[in-house]
Write a structure and sequence with these properties.
Elements lengths: L2 H17 L31 H12 L5 E4 L11 E5 L23 H7 L3 E2 L2 H6 L7 H4 L4 E8 L18 H13 L3 E7 L14 E3 L7 H9 L30 E3 L8 H7 L16 E11 L2 E10 L8 E7 L11 E7 L8 E9 L5 E3 L4 E4 L2 E10 L2 E10 L3 E5 L29 E4 L7 E2 L17 H7 L7 H5 L4 E2 L12 E4 L25 H6 L3 H18 L3 E3 L22 H15 L6 E7 L12 E3 L2 H8 L1 H10 L3 E4 L3 E2 L2 E2 L4 H11 L5 E3 L19 H6 L10 H12 L5 H17 L3
Parallel strand pairs: 2-3, 2-4, 4-5, 5-6, 7-24, 16-18, 17-19, 21-22, 22-23, 23-25, 24-26, 25-28
Antiparallel strand pairs: 1-6, 8-9, 9-12, 10-11, 10-15, 13-14, 14-17, 15-16, 20-21, 26-27
Bound molecules: beta-D-glucopyranose.
Beta-D-glucopyranose binds next to loops.
Length: 767
Amino acid sequence: MNNISKLLLKLIIIVLLSSYNIYNVTKKMPYEKKLISPSAKIELPELKDGYNKKHLNFLRESAAECTLFLNKNEEFPINNPGSVLLLGYGARNTIKGGTGSGDVVSKFTTFEEGLESVGFKITTKNWLNQEKYPLSKEHNTVKADIAIYVLSRNSGEGMDREISKGDVLLTDEEINDILFLNKNYKKFMLVLNTCGVVDLSPVSKVSNILLISQLGSVVGDILGDIILGKSNPSGKLATTWTKIEDYTFIYEFGDNDDTNYIEGVYVGYRFFNSVGIKPLYPFGFGKSYTLFDISKISLTNAKDKINIKVKVKNIGKFPGKEVIQVYVSPSQNNENKPYQSLVSFKKTPNINPSDGIELDLSFKLKSIARYDVKKASYILDKGNYIIRVGNSSEDTKIYGYIELDEDITTEILKNINSGYSTGFKDFNPKIILKDEIKNVQKIKLTKNDFELKKVDYNYEANINKDLLKIKDSDLAYLCIGDFSDIDERLSGIGGLTAKNVKGIKNYIRMADGPAGLRLTNYLDNKNSQAYTTAIPIATALAQTFNTDLLEKIGDLIASEMDIYNIQLWLAPALNIHRNILCGRNFEYFSEDPLISGKMAAALTRGVQSHKNRGTTIKHLTANNQETKKYNNNSNMSERTLREIYLKGFQIAIEDTQPSAVMTSYNLLNGMHTSENKDLLINVVRNEWNFKGLIMSDWSMSELNELGEKYRKQNIFGIIKGGNNIMMPGSDIDYSILINKLSEKLITRDDLLHCASKVYETIELLNK
Ligand code: BGC
């Protein structure tokens, strides 16, 4: 290659990298790297024949669990494929998942292709070819056996959604077309291929509304299976869907500097239930082709662990699965608490009509203790705790209640950023429990039934003796991602730990998620793009309420990690659906921390059942908007932080010890999460006992931005703040680190602490 083409290549690389938030790397790198042409063939291990097909088949068989009917009459399913009037932009321009780092390069079927492949004849080919939207007059006359309208919405990293027609709101054409079809077709189904909530109030009377979501590679295949009754939707909403006016706090979002979480712990159903708003489609709700009867067998306890046995009987005509949900309405004696919180859930196996099964669920009452900021403790206030069981947050029966005669402290902790004041009072609605609990079973618990958790706040970062002989500059290099390895990045690897450090032979290869393995430019042995499987978006995965299924999907991901030799998956992402406008909600599971934590744990279990494979749960924490994401301050009370925004991470870590945690871009109460020692050492290490690697979200040191209220995270704060590695970092970060070392602002011990954790994780994942 002559000099000019080398220069051209370098230019192309720089443009590509900067389009992915990666900086113009100009300074000399600590290790010289030979750049390879981005079009060069990368040798892959031989792909096992059909591995991808097996994965696609598995997803096709199970993905209906992600879907649910919001409305349904008896017109579906139909027995045989016939003619279909297929309309809506998403019919051909189907969305498999959102954009940004949560995207995956993968083939997928559109709804048009999927319906044709199971034998449907599409009568609207002309219309689809001409891409004439809205519905033209011609279709007033073209009749078909059934009509389907696909409504799509997309979103992604870097941009939030808007309350505008075409995004959260329906356009006038969409409303007209949908209502027209609903009126004129006995068998009409509105299919929602959306990234998140859309205000459906103008079409809420439509007889059949299927929330199919965005199901990755098999998105288009599922629809035909559902219409023909070969698959039965069995999902439930993991986030409330309602009309825009119901979201009282929707505008407490998207500030450029400080976003005030003034709704406090009243997020999603916790808000709607507490203030008496009846949502269009409540949390936990979803219809399938069949119906179930849920009845109580027993309610018992072993100390503070409550066990519930139920009988679930299929009383409809189709085989199907049901989700049993347990909610607790806590005592409102002292400080108020949400009307109810989900404390346990379980999905049944497939049950045939007239058959029934027994199912065991359990929870610990302390899981809904209130965090008292003044006492820095979790407290169960004395009074009654009502146990509700059902198949939706709005459809439960009272199975009994727990009585506490005194206040019980369940954990004594330390506040984070102690003394921090948000400058506002959290929303504090008056909650009235009107339930009659006289004739229901009572469980009386006393202090002796609870174990008080006390935390030892003495975490000492380990120093690995293998690193004692490594020189400072190499240790510094280990504390930053391998910013110099441009060739592998172009292959779509999310990042690497430092390669070529003398004395350390291994490193970690990371690929992005959560919608599968993001390997953008991989070429297979025949020089064509190698595709990984796109799994359903996280919101759709959560809708399964099926942790066993998610474990299997984790296993699927890890078997692709095996093929590409990726050690760390940069997923799952479990930020809370605080606001329906967050552009990355599709990457996240739910508005509820229990669901988020359990789903992240299940995926982790699946991935980590493979040797040398690990997950990276992200983004710790309160990364709930894309507007000014690098330096926006999520401002909230400690109670809100603990009860809502940390809880899912805690569950995932305590259940499964993921290999890594990724901090978030945003600040939390005035301090970057990635630089916050209270959060990373006191909470993550000491309180949760996390053993793995803590890494930053993707950034590099940048020039000071004039006029910004908050700076972005930086290498100095990251190394000092209990984080272990700045990803991916740059040679500028490396120079900063070396300078801070010579100024004695960073010590060799600081580097040894971080580098030891990086090194130990490398060794753990390269056995
Ligand atoms: C995203 C992370 C992602 C990382 C690496 C960042 O912009 O916030 O979720 O893992 O890029 O691609």
